[in-house]
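Weekly sync, protein design subgroup
Attendees: M.S., D.O., the rotation student, P.L. (late)

Item 1: inverse folding check
M.S. brought a backbone from last month's batch and wanted to see whether the design step gives back something sensible before we order anything. D.O. pointed out we never logged the input encoding, so this time it goes straight into the notes. C-alpha cells as presented (414 positions):
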C-alpha cells in the first residue's frame, strides 16, 4: 500500500478567516487521501468542530479578536494615554510570543520532517526569517498566498519588509493564489520568483458553517437586538471592518437607497484598529440614517452567522481593494446574492448578472442602483441567490480545491 503524503499546515491564527480556510482545506486534503496535521495555537477556535486530520495546538499565542473591542479614540484623553502604553507593552509581549512560537515550529518541523509544509500569509517579519531558515534546512515548503501586500495604510510597504519577504518566497516550491489578478500582481512585484512555481486555485466555500444551524432563540435574539421585524428586508455588510472595505461608500450609497425603498442596513464585523468607529457613526448620523442602520461592531459568533445571513436580502462588498473574499463565499454558502466592486480578484468570484452584480469601486450611485434593483425584485434576488449557492457547491467546493492542489504536491516529491 502506497504511503500517504504527509502534509503539515502551519497557521499562527487561533481564529478568524485564515483558520477557517485552513480548517476546510485540511479537511479536503485529508478526504483526498493525505495525512494532514494542522499546527496552530492553544486557543484554536474550531476545537469543537469535527476533524478528520490531526490538530497540534502547540503555540501559546492569544485570541485573535476581543469579544468587545475598545478603540483608542473612543476613550477620554487620560484613558487614551494609558491605553497606548498598554498596547505598546502588549505588542512587545506578543513579539516575544511570536518568536517563541516560531522556535517551537522550527524544532517540530525539523524533527518530524513532513513531505510538505504549507504556510499561510506572511504576517510578521519573523515569519519570513524562519521560513527562509526552514527552506535552507531542506524542507519542501509551500504557501497559500492570501495577501502579500497590506491593503491598509501601514506596515508592509517598506523596503526592509519587502526584502525579508522576498527571501522567504524564494524558499517556496509552490505558491498558490486565490485569483489570477493576485498572481499577476505578485509576479510583477517579486520578479525573481519563477512563474512556474505559482498556481491559481479558487477560494473554497464556507460550507462548514451549515453544520452550525441557527437556533430559533438565536434568530429571535438577533432580530430583537437589531430591531428588525419579521419579513423586513435588510442589506448586509459582513466581515472585518477596515478602511479598504469601502464602508464610507456603502453608507453614502445607502442614503440614496433609502430615497427609493424602505430597507435596513446591517454592518456586522470586527473593527480593525485602523477603522474609526466614531467617524463611521458620525457619517451615519449626518445622513440621518441612524434609525435604519445597525452597526454591530464585534467578532460575530459562529452560531449567529447563518441567522444574520438568513435575515438579509443581499450582501454587499464595496471594497476599494481586495485579493479575494472569504466573507463573499459565506454569502454564497447561504444562497445570498452579492454586490461587489470590480477590484482585485472579486470579478473572478462574481458572475456578473448571475450570482450578483459588479460595480466600480467608490461609486455610491451605481452601488445604490444595484441594491435597489434587488430589493425591489425579490424574485431576481432569489434567482441570483440560488445560482450563488450552485457556485458554492461546484466551482468553489473544497473537493475542487483539493483536486487542484494534490497533483502539485505529488509532483514536488518526484
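Designed sequence read out in the meeting:
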Amino acid at each position: 500500500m502506497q504511503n500517504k503524503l504527509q502534509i503539515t499546515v502551519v497557521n499562527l491564527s487561533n481564529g478568524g478567516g485564515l483558520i477557517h480556510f485552513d480548517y476546510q482545506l485540511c479537511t479536503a486534503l485529508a478526504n483526498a487521501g493525505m495525512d494532514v496535521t494542522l499546527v496552530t495555537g492553544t486557543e484554536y477556535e474550531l476545537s469543537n468542530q469535527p476533524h478528520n486530520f490531526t490538530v497540534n495546538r502547540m503555540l501559546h499565542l492569544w485570541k485573535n479578536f476581543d469579544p468587545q473591542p475598545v478603540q483608542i479614540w473612543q476613550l477620554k484623553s487620560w484613558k487614551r494615554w494609558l491605553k497606548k502604553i498598554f498596547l505598546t507593552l502588549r505588542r512587545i509581549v506578543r513579539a516575544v510570543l511570536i518568536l517563541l512560537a516560531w522556535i517551537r515550529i522550527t524544532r517540530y518541523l525539523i524533527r518530524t520532517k513532513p513531505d510538505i509544509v504549507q504556510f499561510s500569509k506572511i504576517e510578521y517579519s519573523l515569519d519570513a526569517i524562519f521560513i527562509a531558515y526552514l527552506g535552507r534546512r531542506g524542507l519542501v515548503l509551500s504557501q497559500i498566498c492570501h495577501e502579500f501586500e497590506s491593503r491598509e495604510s501601514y506596515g508592509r510597504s517598506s523596503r526592509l519588509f519587502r526584502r525579508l519577504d522576498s527571501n522567504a518566497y524564494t524558499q517556496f516550491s509552490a505558491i498558490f493564489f486565490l485569483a489570477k489578478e493576485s498572481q499577476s500582481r505578485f509576479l510583477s512585484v517579486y520578479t525573481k520568483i519563477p512563474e512556474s512555481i505559482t498556481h491559481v486555485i479558487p477560494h473554497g466555500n464556507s460550507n462548514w458553517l451549515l453544520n452550525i444551524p441557527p437556533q430559533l432563540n438565536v434568530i429571535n435574539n438577533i432580530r430583537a437586538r437589531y430591531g428588525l421585524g419579521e419579513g423586513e428586508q435588510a442589506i448586509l455588510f459582513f466581515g472585518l471592518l477596515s478602511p479598504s472595505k469601502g464602508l464610507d461608500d456603502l453608507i453614502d450609497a445607502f442614503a440614496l437607497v433609502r430615497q427609493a425603498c424602505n430597507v435596513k442596513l446591517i454592518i456586522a464585523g470586527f473593527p480593525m484598529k485602523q477603522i474609526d468607529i466614531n467617524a463611521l457613526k458620525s457619517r451615519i448620523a449626518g445622513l440621518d440614517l441612524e434609525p435604519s442602520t445597525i452597526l454591530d461592531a464585534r467578532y460575530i459568533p459562529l452560531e449567529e452567522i447563518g441567522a444574520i445571513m438568513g435575515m438579509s436580502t443581499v450582501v454587499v462588498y464595496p471594497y476599494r481593494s481586495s485579493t479575494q473574499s472569504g466573507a463573499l463565499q459565506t454569502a454564497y454558502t447561504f444562497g445570498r446574492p452579492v454586490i461587489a466592486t470590480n477590484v482585485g480578484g472579486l470579478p473572478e468570484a462574481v458572475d456578473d448578472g448571475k450570482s450578483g452584480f459588479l460595480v466600480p469601486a467608490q461609486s455610491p450611485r451605481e452601488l445604490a442602483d444595484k441594491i435597489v434593483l434587488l430589493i425591489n425584485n425579490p424574485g431576481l434576488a432569489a434567482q441570483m441567490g440560488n445560482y450563488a449557492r450552485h457556485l458554492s457547491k461546484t466551482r468553489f467546493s473544497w473537493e475542487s480545491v483539493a483536486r487542484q492542489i494534490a497533483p502539485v504536491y505529488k509532483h514536488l516529491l518526484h
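Discussion: The mean pLDDT is 91. Residues 77-112 form the longest helix (36 residues).
Action: P.L. to compare against the previous round before Friday.
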